[in-house]
Amino acid sequence: MATFLYKLGRLAFRRRHFVALIWVALLTLAGVGAASAPPAGNSSFSIPGTEAQKAFDLLEQRFPGQSADGATARVVFKAPAGEKMTDAGNKATVEKTVHELSDGSEVASVADPYQGNAVSKDGTIAYASVKYDVSGMELEESTKDALEDAAQQARDAGLTVEIGGDALQAVPETGATEIIGIAIAAVVLVITFGSLIAAGLPLLTALIGVGIGVSSITALASVLDLGSTTSTLAMMIGLAVGIDYALFIVSRYRAELAEGREREEAAGRAVGTAGSAVVFAGLTVVIALVGLAVVNIPMLTKMGVAAAGTVAIAVLIALTMIPALLGYAGRKVKPAGEKGKLLGGARAARRSEAGKPAKANMGTRWASFVVRRPVAVLLLGVIGLGAAAIPATSLELGLPDDGSQPTSTTQRRAYDLLSDGFGAGFNGPLMVVVDAKGTDAPKDAFTDVSDEIKGLDGVVAVTPPAPNKAGDTATITVIPDSKPSSVQTEDLVHAIRDAGGDIKADTGAETLVTGATAMNIDVSQKLNDALLPYLVLVVGLAFLLLIVVFRSVLVPLKAALGFLLSVMAALGAVVAVFQWGWLSGLLGVEETGPVMSMMPIFMVGVVFGLAMDYEVFLVTRMREAYVHGEKPNQAVVTGFKHGARVVTAAAVIMMAVFAGFIGSSESMIKMIGFGLAIAVFFDAFVVRMAIVPAVLALLGKKAWWLPKWLDRALPNVDVEGEGLRTAADRKHTDPDEDRVPART
Question: Cα–Cα distance between 239 and 313 in angstroms, integer?
C-alpha cells in the first residue's frame, strides 16, 4: 500500500492542476445540486420491529385519510392576569383564531378548545389542536406563516399564545461557537507549523471536503429522506477528521524535507507513510459509522452512512489534494527545522551552529518519563478514568422532546403552559390502538381495554374509545400523571402492554401502545438491546484491521481496552452535565433530564473510530522505529518524538471543532458535541499519551508478538513504508531510475 500511495502522492504533486480542477468541479457540482434541491427537514421516523411502529402502521391501514404521519400543532392560549379563557372577549379571540387556522389548504382539522374540553380547570389556559395532511418536513412555508400569523393576531388581542408540536420544527442552529472552534483550529495549526501557508492547507482541504459532503447530503435530502441533523453530524465529523488527516500528511512532508529530500519525493513519501495511516484510520471511522445500521433504525443508519461518506471524502482529499497544494505552495512550506523563525526556531538554529545538541522536545521528555515510571502512570490513568466514569452508573436514557428545548423557543413555552394547565403528562399522551378485527364483540373489547387502563396507577385521564368506520379498530388516548421522559411514564407503557396481553387471551383483541412517547421508549429499548452486538461487530472488525496494520495481537487488544475506558469516562461526564446538571449553566443546558437514548451507541461508534486515529498515527511511528532496529522502549520514545506534537495538535483541533457544536440550539447536537469533545480529551491525552506508552513499556518485545502462522496468513500492507525505503535506496544508487519498483 505504501508504494501505491507513494506513486499517488507524486502523481498528484506533478499533476496538481488536474487534481485541483477535479475537486473544484466536484465542489461546484455538489453546490449547484444543493442550491437547487428543496431544504432538508425532519426525516420520517420509523423503528421497524417495535410495537409502537406496528400500531402506527395499523392506524394507516384502518384509518385511511387521517394522515397518521401528518404534522401537528398545539396553539396554547393563556388569559391575561385576573381573566379567564371563558370570558366573552377571550373566547371570541380564540374562536376567530380557530376559524383562521381552518382555512389552510394543508390543514386536515382544527379542534375548538370549547367543544373539545381543552380548557384547564382554573380556566386560565386553553389549547387548539391543528392536524395537517402532510408531515412537518413537507409543510409549505405559507402554511407555517399562516399558523404564526394567526397566533400573532391573538397576541395582539391581549392573550399569551405559544405554539407546540412539530409543525414549526426548525433546522437546528449551531451559533457562533462553531466558528470559534474553527478559529481555534487555525491558531493550533499556525503554532504547530509556524507558517500561515502550511497551517492553511489542512483548513482549506477540510472545508472543501465538508463542502462536498454536506452539499451532497443537502442535494439528496428530499430523495433519501435525510433530516437536518444528518448534515450537522457529517459537518462535525468531516471537519474534525479532515483537518487531522491533512495535518498528519503535511507534518510528515515537512519532516521528509528536513531529511533533505526533494519536494516531489517528500510529497510522495509523506502520502506513502502518513497516508497509509490515514487510510486505515479512516477505515476504522467508516466501519464504526456504517456499523450503526446494526441497530435497524433507518434515521440512525442514514446519519451514519452520510457521515461515513464525508469521512471517505476527507481521506481522498488528504491523499490527493494535499500533495497537489503542496506543489502549488513550493518553498513557502518549509522543512520541519525551519518552522521556528516565528516560534523559536532561530534559537534552535543558533544552537545547532554552535555545535550544541538540540534540546529534546516535549514528546521525547514525556515518553522518557513514562517508560521509566510505567506502573505509576498506568495506575494514575486508569484510576482517573475510572473516577470520571462513576456517574455513568446512574445513566438514564430517553429521547428529547419539547421540554428539552431552550426556554426562548415557542415550543418550550407551549410545553410549559400545557404542563401548568393540564399536568406534566399532558405533553406526552399515549395512544392505545385496539385491534378487534375477527372478534365477536368489538365494542365490548374496546370497553374492556378502556376500563382496564383506568384502573392502572399513574393514569390521569382516559378518553372514550374512538372506532373507525368499519368498527373493528379503535383508538384510546391515555394521559399519564408524569412527564413524557420519566421512568414512571415508561412503567405505565409497560403496564398497559401487560394488561393488553391478558385482554387478548380473554377476547382475542390485540392492544398496542403508540404515540411519540411510546416510540421514544421503544427506540431507547432497541438501542439498548443493540449496544452489545454493535460493540462486538465494530470492535471486532477494527481489531482485525489493526492486527493487519500493527502485525501484533496485544497492541490492538490494548487499543480496544483503552477505548472502553475513554468512552465510559466520557459517558460519565455526559451524565454529570446533562443529567445531574454539573456546569449546565456554563454549557447552556437549560433543562436536565435523561441522556439521549442513542448517545451510548453513537459514542461507541464515533469515539472508537476517532480513538483509533490517534492509535494508528502514534503507534505506527513506534512500529516503524521498532522494525528498523530500535529497542522497544526506545521505539516508544522515537514515536513520541515524531508524533506527539502532531497528535496533540490534532486532538486539540478535534476537541475545538466538536466543542463548537455545544452552542447548537438542538439539544441532541449540543450533547453530541460535548460528548465527543470530552471523549477525545480522555482518549488522546490520558489513554494514547499516558496509558498506551506505559503498557508498551511494560510489555517490551511482547507487544509486537504475532503467531508465525498468523504472520504468514496476513497480507503485508507495509504501513511503515519499508518498501519506500528500498525504492529510495535503489534510486540513490541509480540516479537515472525514475520508476519505483513494486514491493514484492
Answer: 11
Residue 333's Cα: distance from chain center in Å? 34
Q: Cα(59)–Cα(69) distance, rounded to whole angstroms? A: 10
- For residue 463, which of 177, 729, 156, 116 has the smallest C-alpha distance? 116
Q: How far, in whole angstroms, is CA 323 from its chain's centroid? A: 30
Residue 44 binned pLDDT confidence (cut-offs 50, 70, 90): low
Q: For the chain, how many residues are written?
A: 744
Cα–Cα distance between 605 and 291 in angstroms, integer?
8
Residue 63 near residue 468 (C-beta atoms within 8 A):
yes
Q: Place 381 in a pLDDT band, splitting at 50, 70 and 90.
A: very high
Q: Which residues contact 165 (CB under 8 A, 6 or more apart)?
A: 71, 72, 73, 74, 130, 411, 414
Q: In whole angstroms, what is the distance from residue 300 CA to residue 598 CA?
A: 9
Quickly state the pLDDT bin for 719 (edges 50, 70, 90): low
C-alpha pair distances (Å), 643 with each of 270, 281, 667, 715:
14, 15, 36, 26
Structure letter (DSSP) for residue 355: T
Q: How far is CA 111 from the centre of its chain?
A: 39
Which grid cell sits at 405? 428545548
> Is the CB of residue 485 less than 8 Å from the CB of residue 520?
yes
Contact present, 659 and 587 (Cβ < 8 Å) = no
> In whole angstroms, what is the distance from residue 663 CA to residue 670 CA?
6
Q: Residue 317 class from Cβ within 10 Å (0-12 exposed, 13-18 middle, 19+ buried)?
A: buried
* Rounded-to-integer distance, Cα 633 and Cα 651, Å: 24
- Residue 221 confidence (pLDDT) above 80: no
Q: Quick check: 90 and 96 in contact, CB under 8 A?
A: no
Q: Is 514 helix (H, G, I), strand (E, B) or coil?
A: strand
d(CA 521, CA 525): 6
CA distances from 469 to 59, 63, 94, 194, 450 (A): 12, 8, 31, 75, 19
Burial (Cβ within 10 Å: 0-12, 13-18, ≥19) of residue 469: exposed
Distances (CA, A) of 649 to 388, 471, 637, 643, 644: 24, 67, 18, 10, 8
Closest among 679, 671, 619, 688 to 654, alpha carbons compared = 679
Q: How many CB atoms lie within 10 A of CB 156?
A: 10
Where do the DSSP E strands lie in 540-637? 595-596
Between the alpha carbon of residue 42 and those of residues 35, 297, 410, 625, the distances in Å are 18, 15, 18, 51
Name the grid cell of 432.
392505545
Q: What is the pLDDT of residues 686-714, one digit of tens each?
A: 998 999 999 999 988 888 888 888 888 88
Where does 576-630 show beta strands of DSSP type E? 595-596
Q: Are 471 and 442 in contact, with CB atoms under 8 Å apart? A: yes
Residue 722 pLDDT > 90, yes or no?
no
- 3-state SS, residue 135: coil
